[in-house]
Structure formats: C-alpha cells, structure tokens
C-alpha cells in the first residue's frame, strides 16, 4: 500500500510539473484596453449627438468639426492616462477595489487635463460635449470593468484562466492558505504543490497538497513546475536574506512573489503596511464591531425599515390573507432569538409551516441526523402550500422589518441565533453577539441554507470584525439577486 501511494504521488508530481500555466491570462490587459477604447469612443459619439439637444451651455450648434479635430487626442490621452495609472496591470484584475479606483482617478485626471489643455491652447471645445463625454464614459468604464470581472470569476470557477500557485511554508501554514484559495475559487489560484522546510519529510499536507521539494529549492521548483505565483507563508525560510535571494533569482522570470502573513479574514480597510528602516510592518486596526452599533447605522436601519414597511405593506397584507385562508391558523410565527449582547427577543416571521410544526421537529431531527446549528432541510414536510412560495422568495421574513424598527435587529448583520445555538457557542463564536442580528448578511448572499454551519459562522465573524457602511450597502444590493435566484432558500 505504501508503494502504491508513493507511485500515485510521483505521478501527480510529474503531471503538475509538466503542465503549463494558463497563457490566456496575458490577454486580460488587452481585452480591458479594447473594451475601454470602445466605451470611450462610443460615449464620445453619443456626446456629439446629444450635444445638439442640450440647452444649458451654448447654442445647439454642430460641434462635429471641433470634436473631429480634438476627439482622437482626447481618446488617446484618456487611454494613456489609464495606462499611467496602472489600470492595465495584470495584478489589478479579478479582486479588490484597486482596479476601479485607478480607472476613476485616471478618468478624473484625464478630464482635468483636457479642460486645462483646451484653455491653454484656446481650443473652443463645447462644454456640453465635455460634460456628456466624461459624464457618460466614466460610469460605463466602471460597468465594463465590472462585467469583465464577473466573466473572469465565472471562467475561474469553471477551472480556466487560473494562476498556478506554489506555497512555501510549514505544512500547517500551507493548509491554511490552500484552504482559503480553494474555497474562494473565483480568485483563480490553482494550488499545484508546496515547498516545506528541509526537516519536513511528508509527501503531502493534510489537505492533500503534494510536496514538490524543499523551501531552499524554491527557484528551481518554481521554474520546473511552470508556476505563475509563489506564496511564502510562515516557516518557509529561515531569514530575510534567503527571501531576498529568491526574489533576485526570480526577477528575470514571469513569476510573482507573494508573502502571506499568518492572518485571515481581515478586510483591506483594516490593514496598513508601513515600511520602517526597510522592514515592511503590517499594522492591523482593531475590529470594527463597535462602529456597527453606533447611531449612524441605527438611523439607517430605522429609516430603511420604515420605508420598506410602507413599500411592502400591500404585499404583506396579501401574504397574511393567504396564510389565514389556508388553515385558519395564526398569521405570524414568533420565535425566541438571541440579539445583541445576548438579549432575547421575539423574532417575527410569516407562518410557513403547519401549526404543530414544533411537535414534528424531534422526529425530523432523528431522521436527518441533526447535531447542532440551525435545522433546515429541503422539502420539509411541515411547510404549507403558501409557505413554499413565501420561503422561496424570502417574503416570510418581511415582518422582521418591525424587529428592525424596534431596534431588536438590523437590516444587515449576522443571522439571529436560537437560544440552543448560543448555549453551545465557543468563545470566538460568541463574538457574533457584539452586534444586532440582521435580516440579511454575508450568509444570505453567499449561499444561505446551502452553507455549512462552520462556513456560516466564519462569514458572520468576518462581518462583525470588518463592518463598514459600504459593505452593508453592497450586501443589501446583492440580497435582491440572492432572493430572486432563490439559491439556498428552503
């Protein structure tokens, strides 16, 4: 059996080393450039046509002649500014906000340069055209980058357009990074192997990452495996001089060196890298859970819930009538949940199950092998006919808007837990109770009931530690897509 395992590992190593990385990645900047060129040119043409209808600046004269003279310089200058700001560097594609920041800053600088240039050269460029061209092109450039990113993420989930990655470090650190990269497949990192210290004699890590060599052989193994990126995790090298030597050895090859510190689930807003005496120090700001409890978020919750109650009141009335007519039972289902700082409250939902649902719960627990966490199952026999539609569209949770209005819940936050769940919480899991539970959250837009218990907890803790108002707005926007797709809703 041992010889068979060694043979399988050897074949796997040979296959990994002989494979080649995705060459299509080099075309990402060119694709973005062509898309930007098309968007800017199209918006310039629309601005010429729309200028004739504008009455706010000058007379509706034909500006085609002036634009024909300066238009190509504007388009070329705009694209050149995007290039100077690094909007076409391969490292900005796929994740983070850096790409959008660079496009926005470069576009604003291009607009300023055009305005100043026309003033200095005394070119009589139409103000209407200027406003329309830059006012239209900037949002469409951002939308275009967003569409390209979604297409890239979709391709990476299908296993294409990926970076080949080697991870160097101790086995435990390697598995931490490999676990994150495998979970977040949209990042496009395909872990092809790892490098461990010379004293480590294992053939593969606990997660099954094959060991291709020792950390001090990093340069030769990277080149032999055709890796695009090498991650250096904790325990990889014994000194900074070794790291510097590897960087020097790889500087003439198309290989990116990444140092992965031993921290996970930290948002970029909390991380500051400050070089001191040539030593890059990572500063991590304190968790932001206290900010999520302040008056600004509460005011947003109050105004938002009140507006949504008014907007959805006809829909809630129809749902209440259907529930009542079905079996004459109560319209609302009240369940004790745990809120901020462990306070109990009565969570409101439209009743979607038969009136004796709690009596049938023990039997279902035994049949499904339930152990802990929130119990949910597909095709639950306790769900009523009107309840199926309400659950699929998450309309059963609309009464929780009144919980938000009363301050017991928030529009966005961790899922409100049951008392039996809280009783089994470990110390780190209890951090979920630092903020008000939410009607929606990262768990809702990331799979809902399809998530494992541990993954749902991880997302809730990430939200608590990295709260921001921008993240709340993003989650609310994504909630509509999650609700209408009905993914994970049952």
UniProtKB/TrEMBL annotation:
It holds the Pfam family CoA_binding_3. GO terms for cellular component: membrane. It is a multi-pass membrane protein. The chain crosses the membrane at residues 27-49, 69-88, 100-122, 128-147, 299-321. Keywords: Membrane, Transferase, Transmembrane, Transmembrane helix. InterPro entries: Bact_transf, EPS_sugar_tfrase. It is found in: Membrane. Residues 297-484 form the Bacterial sugar transferase domain. One of its GO terms (molecular function) is phosphotransferase activity, for other substituted phosphate groups. Belongs to the bacterial sugar transferase family. PANTHER family: COLANIC BIOSYNTHESIS UDP-GLUCOSE LIPID CARRIER TRANSFERASE (PTHR30576), SLL5057 PROTEIN (PTHR30576:SF10). This is Undecaprenyl-phosphate galactose phosphotransferase, WbaP/exopolysaccharide biosynthesis polyprenyl glycosylphosphotransferase. The lineage of its organism: Bacteria, Bacillati, Actinomycetota, Actinomycetes, Propionibacteriales.
